[in-house]
Design goal:
Elements (H helix, E strand, L loop, with lengths): L2 E4 L3 E4 L4 E8 L7 E7 L6 E6 L6 E3 L7 E6 L7 E6 L8 E8 L14 E2 L3 E6 L1
Length: 128
């Protein structure tokens, strides 16, 4: 079993930056593709960014290209951490962000149904 825990989001001013982390616990985590999604109340979960297990391939939603960067740390033997660096934040980015992982590696995945494991979500609020 794999458990994903996102870092606390918090409050950020418009134009500011924030890095979210996703800490994974479990076995053989290096062989997992990972992704970040966000979900506003009453709406479907929306793809934000994804990264392959090797860290060599990434994908981004058009709305965040140039503003967000996904990366991962593979230096540890038994767990991994994925990051989402968010710059030039806007109030419309206020929502809950979720980290996800899948055992079926093959490249960055942009659809929620392609992931096996999910974090509990973290609230990010961007003040105007």
């Amino acid at each position: 079993q794999v458990h994903l825990v996102e870092s606390r989001g918090g409050l950020v001013q418009t134009g500011g930056s924030l890095r979210l982390s996703c800490a994974a616990s479990g076995r053989a985590f290096r062989r997992y593709d990972m992704g970040w999604f966000r979900q506003a109340p009453g709406k479907d979960r929306e793809f934000v960014a994804a990264i392959s297990w090797s860290g060599e391939s990434t994908a981004y939603a058009d709305s965040v290209k140039g503003r967000f960067t996904i990366s991962r740390d593979k230096t540890k033997n038994t767990d991994n951490t994925a990051y989402l660096q968010r710059n030039s934040l806007k109030p419309e980015y206020t929502t809950v962000y979720f980290c996800a992982a899948t055992r079926f590696v093959g490249g960055p995945k942009t659809r929620a149904y392609e992931y096996d494991y999910w974090g509990q979500g973290t609230q990010v609020t961007v003040s105007s």
